[in-house]
Every structure is written in structure tokens, then in C-alpha cells.
């Protein structure tokens, strides 16, 4: 009951967009009852709102380890993977959601987003080999719309900007 009370307090802070306080209460809920998938799922959502995708990924993964049928846990894990630039792992998570709930429109959309990122990665790879750095920058900009926390995409973009002689932009991205 105490853990549930902490979760409800966390939900109240989350609703007010006070993600730091929500995080604290979800952590208290987890400390009190460490085997509840939804507590990890809620903390993952909070960490995502704080832009802390690596930590959120660990919580989302823990939530689905505890309950493999936890749809929101799989969705959050996929969104974290995608934000970090791992579109292949994200796709697997979204496909798992669709196995559990074939009509889940969020998973369907996120699966499209993941395949879009994979497509931009492929195009960028080919264009980098062709030394078409402008096109690579374009592709990385598009990919970063879905994967804002991907260091690999940012580094590739910065490298291409430098190769184009756009040093201040390259430095800013790096």
C-alpha cells in the first residue's frame, strides 16, 4: 500500500510536469516494492521527459523483464532505443507491442518512424562513400528528428559539416 501511495504521488507530480519530484516518488515506490513493472515503467516515462534516455531505457527494460506483457514498457523501451539511434532494437520492441496488441496505433506509427531512421542511415552511408556530405547532413538532420539523443548521428553530421568547410556549425553540433 505504501508503494502504491508513492506511485500516486509520483503520478500527481508527473501530471503537473514536475518530473524531478515524480522521479523521486517513483523511486520510493520501486525501493518499497522492487518487483512492480508499472513503477519502473512510470519512472522510465519520467526519465524520458527529462531527456535521460539511457537511464529510461534501463527502467523500461526492467519493466518488461518483470512483465513481458507490459505493453507500455515495450513502447517506452522502443522509444528510448529510437531516441538513442538504435532503430533496429526499437523495431523489435514495437513489433513485440503489435504481437501483444495488433491494433496499437502508437506502435504502428513508431515502427514506421524506426524504419524511416534506418532508411536515412542507409542513404547517409552510401552518400558518405560518394563524398556527398550535404546529403549526409540532410539525412542526419532527418534522423535526429526521431533520434535526438543519438551521439553517432550528431558526430557524423559534425564530421560532414567540417568536410564541407562549415566549421562553426560543425563545432556547434560536436
From TrEMBL:
<feature type="repeat" description="TPR">
    <location>
        <begin position="3"/>
        <end position="36"/>
    </location>
</feature>
<keyword id="KW-0802">TPR repeat</keyword>
<dbReference type="InterPro" id="IPR052758">
    <property type="entry name" value="SRC_co-chaperone"/>
</dbReference>
<dbReference type="InterPro" id="IPR019734">
    <property type="entry name" value="TPR_rpt"/>
</dbReference>
<protein>
    <submittedName>
        <fullName>DnaJ subfamily C member 7</fullName>
    </submittedName>
</protein>
<dbReference type="Pfam" id="PF13414">
    <property type="entry name" value="TPR_11"/>
</dbReference>
<dbReference type="InterPro" id="IPR011990">
    <property type="entry name" value="TPR-like_helical_dom_sf"/>
</dbReference>
Amino acid at each position: 500500500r505504501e508503494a502504491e501511495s508513492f506511485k500516486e504521488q509520483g503520478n500527481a507530480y508527473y501530471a503537473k510536469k514536475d518530473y524531478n519530484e515524480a522521479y523521486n516518488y517513483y523511486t520510493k515506490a520501486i525501493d518499497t516494492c522492487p518487483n512492480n513493472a508499472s513503477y519502473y515503467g512510470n519512472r522510465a516515462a519520467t526519465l524520458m521527459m527529462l531527456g535521460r534516455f539511457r537511464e529510461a531505457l534501463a527502467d523500461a527494460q526492467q519493466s518488461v523483464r518483470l512483465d513481458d506483457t507490459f505493453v507500455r514498457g515495450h513502447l517506452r523501451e522502443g522509444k528510448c532505443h529510437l531516441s538513442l539511434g538504435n532503430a533496429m532494437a526499437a523495431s523489435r520492441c514495437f513489433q513485440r507491442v503489435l504481437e501483444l496488441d495488433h491494433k496499437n496505433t502508437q506502435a504502428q506509427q513508431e515502427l514506421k518512424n524506426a524504419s524511416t531512421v534506418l532508411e536515412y542511415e542507409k542513404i547517409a552511408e552510401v552518400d558518405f562513400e560518394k563524398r556527398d556530405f550535404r546529403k549526409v547532413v540532410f539525412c542526419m538532420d532527418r534522423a535526429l528528428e526521431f533520434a535526438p539523443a543519438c551521439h553517432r548521428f550528431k558526430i557524423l553530421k559534425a564530421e560532414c559539416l567540417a568536410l564541407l568547410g562549415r566549421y562553426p556549425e560543425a563545432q556547434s553540433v560536436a
